[in-house]
Amino acid sequence: MAARPKLIAGNWKMHGSIGQNRDLLHAVVQGTTGLEADVAVCVPYPYLSQTQSLLQQTHVSWGAQNVSQHEKGAYTGEVSGSMLTDFGCRYAIVGHSERRALYGEDNYIVALKFKAAQTAGLIPILCVGETLDQREAAITERVVAEQLDAVIELAGIASLAKSVLAYEPVWAIGTGKTATPEQAQEVHAFVRNRIAGRDPGVASGLQILYGGSVKASNAAELFSMTDIDGGLIGGASLIADEFIKICLAGKN
Ligand code: PEP
After folding, report:
1. d(CA 21, CA 54)
2. Is the terminal CB of the chain with fewer CB neighbours within 10 Å at N or C?
3. Is 153 labeled as catalytic in the residue annotation?
């Protein structure tokens, strides 16, 4: 099986300013030049234009943290996939647990967003993951399978070939608690095997990222696991040195 390239993607969430972004993006470009791994940042919508102008001649890609499921129309406050490609986005995160928990995005809405992103030419980064209660009730696999199956049902198994998955246990996001490499690997392998049951080629090529309190100090160990193909990085992606070290830990 050909090695999958690693991808390290930052999720800035609702952080940043014109000045901070400039310094951070310059540092990330400098610090990751020549790296074999793919590097990306998912920034707040208002900073897409700035991000595009700072990154367009570089090896670092960029994307958004959300996308509307609609193509266009009377949807006040929403942003469509084609608007994101207008600003050169390569990626759009869909189904982040904060959007599921705080904005009521259920599996079907996430699947619609996944499809809308792909229709617009974006690569969706589909987030799946269980809450602490669900892990303690030993239903992690069921929860993750349902999140994944909703997308497969709507968009088809082949659609996963043009996507990235991120396993993000909700109890590990922004909490400082990281899944152990073995805990993460177990779920990554479950996801890949489930997809392989439908399409082995899609499964073996699919980048599955781990997200949840990844830091410079734990990244290399996580990224060394067979089915972990990089990371989706929240808090640590805002600190240039830390994010660069995480990216370096992803070199193939
Ligand atoms: C995230 O927001 O996707 C995330 C993984 O956050 P953190 O790295 O801060 O846990």
Report:
1. 10
2. N
3. no
C-beta of 231 in contact with ligand 1 (< 6 A): no
| Domains of the chain, residue spans | 77-252
Catalytic residue among 105, 168, 188, 242: 168
Task: Encode pLDDT of 207-229 as tens digits.
Answer: 999 999 999 999 999 999 999 99
Tokens representing 53 are: 């102008």
For the domain bounded by 77-252, which CATH number is listed?
Answer: 3.20.20.70
pTM, two decimal places: 0.97
Contact 67, 113 (CB under 8 A): yes
d(CA 125, CA 90): 10
Which of 14, 98, 168 most suits a substitution to test ligand 1, by most atoms within 8 Å of the C-beta?
Answer: 168
55 vs 63: CA distance, rounded Å = 11
Residue 125 burial (CB count, 10 A) = 30
Residue with the smallest CA separation from ligand 1 atom 1 is: 234
The mean pLDDT value for 194-217 works out to 97
